[in-house]
Automatic annotation (TrEMBL):
It is found in: Cell membrane. InterPro entries: Kazal_dom (IPR002350), Kazal_dom_sf (IPR036058), MFS_dom (IPR020846), MFS_trans_sf (IPR036259), OATP (IPR004156). Residues 45-692 form the Major facilitator superfamily (MFS) profile domain. Belongs to the organo anion transporter (TC 2.A.60) family. This is Solute carrier organic anion transporter family member. GO terms for cellular component: basolateral plasma membrane. It comes from Molothrus ater (Brown-headed cowbird). Keywords: Cell membrane, Disulfide bond, Glycoprotein, Ion transport, Lipid transport, Membrane, Transmembrane, Transmembrane helix, Transport. PANTHER family: ORGANIC ANION TRANSPORTER (PTHR11388), SOLUTE CARRIER ORGANIC ANION TRANSPORTER FAMILY MEMBER 1C1 (PTHR11388:SF99). The gene is Slco1c1_1.
Length: 736
């Protein structure tokens, strides 16, 4: 005891110098305050970024829910709607490289705030055409629009129509033509969506990198997972908002709703698509406000100051790349020393020249960094697989509402409600399950590649079963069936005319469907041979329709009502089966999202992480986001049976699709692209297996060493990165 007390006395006597103690206490106190400040600041940023992810996901998903509404409102084909949808990706393309590469050198929170303002301005611009173009006009027989003139649908002689009524109608058409000829208001929708893309660009690369820079390493993955989880909620509200607005008539508040003679089940119905954009724009403004008050830098956590302990190092990073990174660091240090020694003597002109040389140095470093990325076989193969898979998913979800409406006869409101309330929660649960599986079973990088490949394979296999879950074509006289019940001729325009309506002066361009008492839909009352009508508006009933009974000579009186006939009794059951398989497919594909992204992050150099994500996002947008909606739309247009006509001539939006052809084109194109992406995923797994020994995989399962990581960092990979979501994955999965 005495010896021990003497040793303690000697120890404290040698270490009780007051200045050292005070500095140590101050150091501990400042470190504690720094930690609290760091934690508080990063949590505020986390909350603000989560709200921004919610806002951008809401506006993006709302656009998907209004695709058919925009097509009908502006009377444009699906291919042009695809161009409008792809303009968002074009906006990203314009500045994604600059933002991802130089954004870290600027005030990142304020750049994100400015992006939110631009995004809200674009959202408001999309809604503006509603206030500058005239009221929505749809095709209807005059007697159904509360007309005071009694007209016969089958105009055997033009003289039976009062001259004043014809002149008035022609005057309205001419006035409308003058207005339509001088404006193409859909261009404003395209420009607004392009602005949305520009404003959204800095949110992902700068926001995620900011969290990764200033969060405690073991919390970074959790924070990023929280952001991506909140982003999943955005599409839910986006599609539900789309469902609500689709129930409201497009000109609500501007016209008397009692005078509207169409219902949401009619293919000419257009909901209040513009209203949701005003709401989404307001939310984007609110989301950007906090970023103007956040600091440029936060105190770095103590554990993150030593960059040598980063878990991003990978065995797939070659030694020469490591040497190159060291050399770049040494050059930066030499430049810093030179600048420090000459700062007091260099004139202002030479300082400007030095800034220019520094910019050139950054540009000179760009190409080697790009070469480094594309020299990584895992990165380039995973990039190819993602590009093709995104082509499949972007095209599929862009036109999914249209497919459900045309294939199963559902309204736009119900379609958006189903997608928002059923499909998207399944996606969120699938992403969570993917991260949970990796954490629970300690999945290594090779295991992550297997899990990603397996989810894609089984997801597209389930999608294959949807070919058997379609509805037949609606029975439309002259288009899908003849007036006598047989299959129509190949020339649908000529098949619209028959003996039963040969005595009527009908136009083949009209689309004013009525449902005959025999269960067959007719393109217009005139083509149905109807010679009398009673009632007004939605309650109009047509009588003496010679084509309804199938023969012109029949003396039996037959009738028809306004609107198309409903699809067969088996269609609701098929729609239920479709929903079940669609939900399971969404869940299965989303399980592989987190493992695939972990694979991407583990096989790139630490200092190239943001740049690699920027290139990844750029490639997805250019090679998938822009072209996929366009060529999917062109393919879908080929299945159209009946095109609408614009008031001044020319082809408008499609009124009726061949349900069987639409199913084969829509699902077939999706599956072909998905199958090709699976082959690239197999190649990724083959490269990983080739570069990793069986011993590495065994150790990886035990948590000692990963197939794509170093010995000392495997545990950090399992514990910290399993919940990192794909930069693009939430949007990718909401497209299911």
């Amino acid at each position: 005891m005495e010896v021990s007390s003497k040793e303690n006395t000697h120890f404290f006597s040698n270490n009780t110098i007051l200045p050292v103690d005070r500095s140590s206490f101050k150091s501990e106190s400042s470190a504690s305050k720094e930690k609290q400040s760091c934690c508080g600041g990063i949590k505020i940023f986390l909350g603000a970024l989560s709200f921004v992810y919610f806002a951008k996901a809401l506006s993006g998903s709302y656009l998907k829910s209004t695709i058919t509404q925009i097509e009908r409102r502006f009377d444009i084909p699906s291919s042009l709607v695809g161009v409008i949808d792809g303009s968002f990706e074009i906006g990203n393309l314009l500045i994604i490289i600059l933002v991802s590469y130089f954004g870290a050198k600027l005030h990142r929170p304020r750049i994100i705030g400015a992006g939110c303002l631009i995004m809200s301005a674009g959202t408001f611009l999309i809604a503006m055409p509603q206030f500058f173009m005239g009221r929505y006009r749809y095709e209807r027989f005059p007697s159904t629009i509360n007309s005071t003139v009694s007209l016969s649908p089958c105009l055997q002689d033009k003289s039976q129509t009062p001259l004043s009524a014809l002149e008035k109608s022609q005057a309205k058409i001419n006035a409308g033509c003058e207005k339509e000829a001088g404006s193409s208001m859909w261009i404003y929708v395209l420009l607004g969506n392009l602005l949305r893309g520009i404003g959204e660009t800095p949110i992902q690369p700068l926001g995620i990198a900011y969290i990764d820079d200033y969060a405690v390493e073991e919390n970074a993955a959790l924070y990023i997972g929280c952001v991506q989880t909140v982003a999943i909620i955005g599409p839910i509200f986006g599609f539900l908002l789309g469902s609500l607005c689709a129930k409201l008539y497009v000109d609500i508040g501007f016209v008397d709703l009692d005078s509207v003679t169409i219902s949401p089940k009619d293919v000419q119905w257009v909901g209040a698509w513009w209203l949701g954009y005003l709401i989404a724009g307001l939310i984007s403004i609110l989301a950007g406000i906090p970023f103007w008050f956040l600091p440029r830098h936060l105190p770095k956590p103590e554990g993150r100051k030593d960059s040598s302990t980063s878990s991003e190092h990978s065995r797939f990073i070659t030694e020469d790349n490591k040497d190159q990174g060291t050399s770049s660091w040494q050059q930066a240090k030499i430049a810093e020393m030179a600048k420090g020694n000459s700062l007091d003597i260099i004139p202002a002109v030479i300082l400007s020249l030095a800034c220019l040389l520094f910019l050139l140095f950054c540009l000179a470093d760009f190409l080697p960094s790009l070469k480094n990325l594309f020299g990584n076989p895992v990165y380039i193969l995973y990039l190819c697989a993602s590009i093709i898979q995104f082509n499949s998913l972007i095209g599929m979800v862009t036109y999914k509402p249209k497919y459900i409406e045309q294939q199963y006869g559902q309204t736009s409101s119900k379609t958006n409600f189903v997608i928002g309330l059923i499909n998207i929660p399944a996606v969120a649960f699938g992403i969570f399950s993917g991260g949970l599986i990796m954490k629970r079973f300690g999945v290594g990088v090779v295991g992550a590649a297997k899990l990603s490949l397996g989810s894609s394979f089984f997801g597209y296999l389930l999608l294959l079963s949807l070919f058997a879950m379609g509805c037949g074509n609606s029975e439309v006289a002259g288009l899908t069936v003849s007036y006598h019940g047989a299959k129509p001729m190949s020339d649908h325009e000529q098949a619209l005319f028959s003996e039963c309506n040969s005595g009527c002066s009908c136009s083949r361009n009209d689309w004013d469907p009525i449902c005959g008492e025999n269960g067959v839909t007719y393109v217009s009352p005139c083509l149905a041979g109807c010679r009398a009508s009673s009632g007004t508006g939605k309650n109009t009933v047509f009588f003496n329709c010679s084509c309804v009974v199938g023969t012109f000579e029949s003396s039996q009186s037959s009738s028809a009502v306004v609107g198309p006939c409903q699809k067969g009794n088996e269609c609701p059951k098929m729609f239920l089966y479709f929903l079940v398989i669609s939900v399971i497919t969404s869940y299965t594909l989303s399980v592989g999202g987190t493992p695939g992204y972990i694979l991407l992050l583990r096989c790139i150099k630490p200092h190239l992480k943001s740049f690699a994500l920027g290139i990844y996002t750029l490639a997805i947008r250019v090679l998938a986001g822009i072209p996929a909606p366009v060529y999917f739309g062109v393919a879908i247009d080929t299945t159209c049976l009946k095109w609408g006509s614009k008031r001044c001539g020319g082809r408008g939006a499609c009124r009726l699709y061949d349900a069987s052809a639409l199913r084969y084109v829509y699902l077939g194109l999706t599956l072909v692209l998905g199958t090709v992406s699976i082959f690239f995923s197999v190649a990724v797994l083959w490269v990983l297996r080739k570069k990793s020994s069986p011993q590495d995989e065994t150790l990886s399962a035990n948590g000692e060493r990963g197939a794509c990581g170093t010995k000392s960092r495997k545990d950090n990979f399992v514990n910290s990165d399993q919940f990192i979501q794909s930069t693009y994955w939430p949007e990718k999965e909401t497209r299911l």
